[in-house]
Structure formats: C-alpha cells, structure tokens
Amino acid sequence: MTRIDLVVLKRIASRIALTMVLFFGLILLVESIDSWRYNYLLGVGGLPLALFGMVAGAAQWLIKGLALIVLLGTAIAVIDLQSRREMTAIKASGMSIWRILRAPTIALLLFGLVVTFYAEGAVTVANRVLYATLPGDNASLTPSGGLWLEQQAGEDEHYVLQAAHVVDSGQQLQDVTIYRQDGLGEGRIVAPSARLADGAWRLPRATRYRAGLPPQQLTDFSLATQTTPGDLRVKVSSTDDMTLFELASSLSGSMSDSQLRNAAATRLLRLLSLPALLVGALFIAFAFTAGYRRTNGYGAPIVYAILIGFVVFVITEMADRAGSAGVLSPMFAACGPAFVALVIGLTVLLYKEDGWA
C-alpha cells in the first residue's frame, strides 16, 4: 500500500465514521422517544440496561442504512480531496481512478464481511434478548393471544394449535389447546405441554373434551403435522430477529412452508450481499464527485449522489419485501440492489473517466 492509498483510505474512513456517528445520534434521538420501553428497562435493570436498549435499537437501524451512510461519507471525503486539489495531484501522478479505488474497495469489502458475519449477529441477538423481556412485544409470548398455528396433518386433515407460552425456539409449547377439524365429533384437546418431534406434536399428558361425553385422559398422545422445526423457528420469531447462522441452519433443514423459506432465503442472501452493496455505494459516490472541476461547486453532484443513494435504499427495501412475499426470487430480490448499485457506479465511472459512451 502506497502513501497515496493511505491518504485516500484515511480520508474516506474518517468521513464515513463521522457520517455514521451523526446518523447514529439521530437514530438514538428517535429511539429515546419510546419512553415506555426506556422506563420499563430502567425499572428492570437500571440506567445501564435502558441505555443499552436504546443503543442496540439504534445500531440495528444503522446497519439497515449502512449503504446510504457509506455513499454520503465517501462523497464528503472525495469532495474534501477535491477542494484541497489533492485528487488533482493524485491523478496528475499517473494513478487512474481504478487504482485510487483499490484500497477503499478492499477495506469496504472487509468491513462488510465483519458486519455480515459478526456485528449484525451481535446486534440481532442483543435486540432479541431485550425485546423478549418487554411484555407484549413478542406475539408468541403474549398472555392475551398466545401463539396460534394452523396445522396440516395430511391433505384433508387440518387443525389449529394454540399455546400460551413458547420455549426452545417454538419446539416446546406450554398450555396447549388443539382444535380439531370436526369440533363436535373430535372435540378439542388440552395439554400442559407439547413438543415437536419426528413430524408430530408429542403430548405426554392431555385431556380430550367432546360434546356429550366425559373428559378423556390421554397419555403419550401424538398428532401428525407437516410443520418442520425450521418452519417453526421462523414462525415464532421473525427473519429480522435471526442471525446469519440461524438462517443458514433453518434453510439447511427441511422447511415445508415455501413462504417462510422465501423470507429466510431473502434475509440470508441480503446479508451476504451487503459487502457488494457497500462497494456499489462507494463506486456511486466516486462516480458523481471524483471528476475534474474548475470550481469548487459540488452542489449538483452531491444532490445526484444522495438521490441515487435513496433510490438504491428504497429499491433494496422493496425488493426485500417482494422476495419475502415470494413475488420475486430470493436471489434476485437480495442480490439485485447490490448489482444495480455496482452497475450504476461502474457505468458512470467508465463514461466520465474513460470516455465510454
């Protein structure tokens, strides 16, 4: 790495860090508006837990907008280099724009990998633990409604399972009530607990209630289901509350629900494509701000870069929703925005720097 690489890398890294701090402060201010959560965590664990809850929530939103932050920070850094004529001197030394981009690109790829495989998972786990302590935040733990699952044992056999409490990622349910398809003939089954194992719900002790008949005690009762542990893990939580390795574990197993598989695959591929999306944001910022200018007027390039950054952010969110709903292929929905960002940045750079039409 040459001295020029260090100058460019330090300038870009410092401006991205400054932009990240500013965004984090704004998001933290928004998180502080939720006074109910703050007061509850304050009562449970004191001021450290309350502050940690705000920081964890802000960090989760910060990761979602990381591509936009990289784009803005890089644009500010390049304008800083341009205003001091450092970019002009670097190009005059014979370095092409592609050579200048080498060190920031490698650094962003490494940063994206760290966020994907470590930071995002740590933030997700922290928020999941915090939200689990809040009454009413997790639909699978609410005492008022509990967890409701529509189950299918065969092509023509359906039933509804309701549980008041969920443990062990949904594989263990407590205070269970099963409503059979024929309510009068088959009645309902009430059990203290139920566990999912080998394609069936296992109820060690249960009581069957049918109209006109006395309650019937059942022992080691089982009821077939097509739901798999992978399906259940996603159903009782959310793909946003699952880490990269948990998503991979769920997808590696059998998932019978195609909609849940699409949601998990979209989330997993989006995390894996994050480094490429950050590099695309870097190329876009350079494409609109690194060109030679006689004056220091950079208003229009900054506006164009910000607008394209917001467009990429909106496209990313829309594609994520479409992929999770099964409207788009998870691969296309997750990797498409990163590909679009790279194409936009490279196209504009080739046109401006190399004169390609």
Helical stretch tally: 11
**The number of domains:** 2
Q: Could you give the distance between the termini?
A: 32 Å
**Structural class based on helices, strands and sheet pairing:** alpha+beta
How helix-rich are the residues, as a percent range? 55-70%
Structural shape: elongated
Note poorly predicted spans.
Answer: 135-144
Biggest sheet, open or closed, and with what strands and sense?
Answer: 6 strands, antiparallel
Biggest sheet strand line-up? 1-2-3-4-5-6
| Beta-strand content | 15-25%
Strand element count: 6
List the secondary-structure elements in sequence, H or E. Answer: HHHHHEEEEEEHHHHHH
Mean residue pLDDT: 82
Q: Radius of gyration in whole Å, from Cα?
A: 26 Å
List keywords for this structure.
15% strand; alpha+beta; 357 residues; single chain; 6 strands; elongated; 6-stranded antiparallel beta sheet; 11 helices
Structural summary, described in words:
- Helices cover 61% and strands 15% of the residues.
- With 357 residues, the chain is of the alpha+beta class.
- It folds into 2 domains: 3-135 and 254-353, no CATH class; 147-236, no CATH class.
Q: Could you provide a short overview of the structure?
A:
The chain has helices at 3-31, 35-64, 66-83, 86-92, 97-132, 229-235, 244-252, 258-272, 274-289, 299-325, 330-353, and strands at 147-152, 158-167, 172-180, 188-197, 200-209, 216-224. By secondary structure, it is α+β, with helices and mostly antiparallel strands.
What topology emerges from the helices and strands here?
Blueprint (H helix, E strand, L loop, with lengths): L2 H29 L3 H30 L1 H18 L2 H7 L4 H36 L14 E6 L5 E10 L4 E9 L7 E10 L2 E10 L6 E9 L4 H7 L8 H9 L5 H15 L1 H16 L9 H27 L4 H24 L4
Antiparallel strand pairs: 1-2, 2-3, 3-4, 4-5, 5-6
Helix pairs in contact: 1-2, 1-3, 1-5, 2-5, 3-9, 3-10, 5-9, 7-8, 8-10, 8-11, 9-10, 9-11, 10-11
